[in-house]
What we know:
The chain has five helices and no strands. It has helices at 32-42, 45-54, 57-66, 72-82, 90-93. Helix 1 (32-42) crosses helix 3 (57-66) and helix 3 runs antiparallel to helix 4.
Amino acid sequence: MNELQENPNIPQYMKYLFWDTDFSKLDNEKYWFYIIERAFQLGRPEQIRWIELTYNEEQIKEVVKKSKILDRKTVNFWCLIYSIKREETVCFTKQYPNLLWEY
């Protein structure tokens, strides 16, 4: 592997989740919201476990409550795990228009 693309703070098995990001510059403290959100969106059990070991419960709850990207199924699951009311989440309280291309 190219050493320039490694990240000392984030395990290599997380790298594929950030295909659109320069993984070597991804700061796990500065971009915690993005990292948790992406792992919840696309991650496997080992990535989710790393998230739970790395970030505190309040950070995780904030992502579940404020994410505009996570789908309802994912948010609902984490609401059950962390005893969050669905009404406290953006996912279940804001309705985004279903924009269709007119042609």
